[in-house]
Automatic annotation (TrEMBL):
It is a multi-pass membrane protein. Its EC number is 4.1.1.90. SMART domains: HTTM (SM00752). It is found in: Endoplasmic reticulum membrane. Residues 12-38, 754-767 have a biased composition (Basic and acidic residues). This is Vitamin K-dependent gamma-carboxylase. It comes from Oreochromis niloticus (Nile tilapia). The chain crosses the membrane at residues 121-154, 202-219, 254-276, 283-306. The keyword Nucleus does not apply. Its main location: endoplasmic reticulum.
């Protein structure tokens, strides 16, 4: 059996049979449906349902209770309404699109450009109304089209925001457009009694269930990657407080390997299967709910965990809402979904004629008109099969879109390889060269753009270079060449170049259907070094830090060591390098095991002169921060002695604020010594963090609600201003300024703490 057919069969249940049994519960016992076979009890269909095209189409169009689909439609619409103001960016639309400013953008197709800002607000209004219509089941088809068209336009407009769950929202919106999602608990049902509580074809459930199965299962298959299995992809997650209960019985290394990576792999591979079967579904609900609740705290992924939670009931029997809402008080029944059993027939479904004898013979309901297959029934079955085949194929279609394969599986947004790759960037340099004057200079990484994802994707790098080529002539840089030197570590490997720094990206060839010629290969042969990294890092003290570098033969790294890093050395692990101290004009050749100290506050170059890639490491101590921490320790000891009454000598004037720190929270403002002022700032910040962590449930909910209120408030007010501008034109500048300032108003606590937020005055300088 083909994969698409198998999936279509596996995700049909005995929903229609269950409903038929309920409708016939008063029938004589001899007329009841015969006992089902074992296969039918487990999978919900018989082997005969797959033996011919006619029976297969009839199966997919079997009448099914619309209740579960209606509840999911409502929940999905609600979540999208919330998502539009947050992850889609309605609340910060003016910052996102910067109307009229020179901004480099990254659309899927270069001809796609954002509309003027006020019109973009209108696009979001249309999307918001569409999502609201889906939630309410009001003018359902039109609402789906409004949401779908605007959503995919915004999705294609900016590749820097692409992710798997945003892609999933678009897919579900597309599926709902073709389904009968407004047959239950909808305004359309109130307006049109003929569709109220009417059956829906089984393929509506089959499609959604199979889509969620694909999300889980393909994500699990992608996690069979060696980096995930060995625990390198998301090792940092084990340090999160959510995993503290596991750390009571396991060391953090095993928590990372067994819980984060092992648990994530097993859950993704099995969740779809466990949700499908009656026996395992309760256990699946528990683990899946726990998993998504954790994800909502671990990652900033908007409504995705809640959307996945909303999809879980789709695997239950479709009449579960009737049973659930039947337990509510009777005075609420007017606003709650229908709880009465049975649904009216629908021409969208195929009904079986029940044969009997004499007056006991039963016919297909008249409203269904006939049990014959129509074109719409066949098209529904064909669409289901083709769609599922396409969804199984897309995550493995990267042999087609080869230009997007930049150390990942192509276009990340539809691959379901969620969290399989983690990256860290150590060094990013953009060099321009004026082709007319020969002048060479450097650009601030990220100039003319608000995103940082261009550093990892060749297609975005090409778009960025082309954009820079267009804007730099405004600054007397004629016909510039653009070169990128970007160092990336993927899944805790060596920091290495991802793109060839010798290639002018403006004139470099790039095609979505050809391999990227200026993409440097990932040095997978050096992956075993990661186990040695842990040994080396474990042998260092807390103040010493380390960066592991790998480079290709014939290339060199030009680096500047900050003055804060007063004790920096280079040690070779593999290959041969030549270190040039630029100011001293001296060169030193290093073999494996040899090291050299490089001066702080100066440039140096590291050339790879061996035939194979070289590996070396920077070992450094932030001497400024180490001295600061030493001073902090002394100040803390003095403060403790003052509190305990064991300090016998009077404090000098510059240390007097330490005595008043507990009584006067603003005492650090009067501190004359910068070290004392910074110490008190950090102490106050630590108290705030501790207070927030120890806050009760009600306080956390209040803080969450207030934050969301001001976020949504700004989106609504800015949208109202934009709609007014489109309707009657722009007001005077002074009025517009006042209106925007009013929309930008934040909660008083946020305004009070904004200036008091601790800044990292002494951070780690980039090597």
């Amino acid at each position: 059996m083909e994969a698409g057919d198998a999936t279509a069969g596996a995700f049909v249940r005995r929903d229609g049979d269950d409903q038929t049994a309920k409708d016939q519960h008063k029938a004589p016992k001899r007329e009841q449906t015969p006992t089902r076979s074992k296969m039918e009890q487990i999978f919900g269909f018989k082997k005969e349902d797959l033996t011919s095209w006619h029976s297969f189409v009839s199966l997919l169009n079997r009448p099914t209770d619309p209740a579960s689909l209606g509840i999911f439609r409502c929940l999905f619409g609600l979540l999208m309404v919330i998502d539009i103001t947050q992850e889609r960016g309605l609340s910060n639309l003016d910052y996102k699109y910067l109307d009229g400013a020179p901004v480099c953008r990254f659309p899927l197709f270069n001809f796609l450009q954002p509309l003027p800002l006020d019109w973009m607000y209108l696009v979001y209004v249309v999307m918001f109304l569409g999502a609201s219509g889906i939630m309410l089941g009001c003018f359902y088809r039109l609402s789906c089209l409004m949401f779908l068209s605007t959503y995919w336009y915004i999705f294609f407009l900016d590749k820097t925001t692409w992710n798997n769950h945003s892609y999933l929202y678009g897919l579900i919106g597309f599926q709902l457009t073709l389904m009968d999602g407004n047959r239950y608990w909808s305004i359309d049902g109130l307006r049109r009694p003929s569709i109220r509580n009417a059956h829906v074809p089984l393929w509506n459930y089959t499609l959604l269930r199979a889509q969620i199965f694909i999300v889980y299962f393909i994500a699990g298959v992608k996690k069979l990657d060696a980096d995930w299995v060995e625990g390198y992809s998301m090792s940092y997650l084990a340090h999160h407080w959510l995993f503290d209960p596991f750390k009571l019985i396991l060391p953090v290394e095993l928590v990372s390997l067994l819980v984060v990576h092992g648990g994530g792999l097993i859950l993704d591979l099995t969740a779809g299967y466990l949700l499908f079967f009656d026996v395992t579904r309760p256990y699946a609900f528990f683990f899946v709910s726990y998993f998504h609740c954790m994800n909502s705290q671990l990652f900033s992924i908007g409504m995705f965990p809640y959307t996945m939670l909303a999809t879980s009931p789709l695997f239950c029997y479709p009449d579960w809402p009737r049973n659930f809402f039947a337990h509510f008080p009777s005075f609420l029944r007017a606003v709650l979904p229908l709880t009465s059993p049975g649904s009216q027939p629908s021409p969208s479904c195929v009904y079986e004629e029940i044969q009997g004898s004499g007056t006991q013979q039963r016919q297909t309901p008249a409203a269904a008109k006939s049990s014959k297959l129509r074109l719409k029934h066949k098209l529904g079955a064909i669409f289901t099969v083709l769609y599922l085949m396409e969804q199984f194929f897309m995550p493995y279609s990267h042999f087609i879109t080869q230009g997007y394969n930049n150390w990942t599986n192509g276009l990340y947004g539809y691959s379901w390889d969620m969290m399989v790759h983690s990256r860290s960037h150590q060094h990013v340099k953009i060099t321009y060269k004026d082709r007319k004057t020969g002048e060479t200079g450097y650009l601030n990484p990220g100039v003319f753009t608000q995103s940082r994802r261009w550093k990892d994707h060749g297609d975005m790098l090409k778009q960025y270079a082309t954009c820079l080529h267009q804007y730099l002539p405004r600054y007397n840089i004629s016909d510039p060449e653009i070169y990128f030197d970007i160092w990336v570590s993927i899944n805790e490997r060596f920091q290495q170049r991802i793109f060839d720094p010798r290639v002018d990206i403006v004139r470099a060839e790039w095609s979505p259907f050809k391999p990227n010629k200026w993409l440097m290969p990932l040095l997978v042969d050096l992956s075993p070094w990661r186990t040695k990294f842990q040994e080396i890092e474990g042998s260092l003290d807390n103040q010493t830090e380390i960066v592991f570098i790998a480079d290709f033969p014939g290339l060199h790294l030009e680096n500047f060591v900050s003055e804060d890093l007063g004790n920096t050395s280079i040690q070779v692990l593999q290959g041969q390098v030549n270190v040039e101290i630029v100011e001293e004009k001296k060169n030193y050749t290093l073999q494996p095991g040899e090291q050299i100290k490089v001066p702080a506050g100066a440039y140096h170059k590291v050339y790879t002169v061996s035939e194979d890639p070289s590996c070396y490491m920077y070992v450094y101590v932030n001497t400024t921060e180490a001295a600061l921490q030493k001073n902090f320790t002394k100040l803390y000891e003095i403060q403790e002695r003052v509190r305990n009454g064991t300090e016998t000598e009077p404090l000098p004037p510059e240390l007097q604020p330490l005595m008043a720190a507990d009584d006067d929270e603003g005492s650090e403002v009067n501190a004359t010594d910068p070290i004392v002022r910074l110490f008190l700032k950090r102490q106050r910040r630590m108290k705030e963090v501790k207070k927030r962590r120890e806050a009760g449930v009600l306080e956390r909910l209040q803080r969450f609600a207030v934050k969301k209120y001001y976020t949504i408030r700004r989106g609504i007010l800015m949208t109202a201003i934009a709609m007014r501008n489109l309707a009657v034109g722009l007001p005077p500048l002074e009025q517009l300024t006042r209106e925007v300032a009013y929309a930008n108003m934040k909660e008083p606590q946020a305004e009070a703490s904004q200036d008091e937020r601790l800044k990292d005055e002494v951070g780690h300088a980039e090597l």
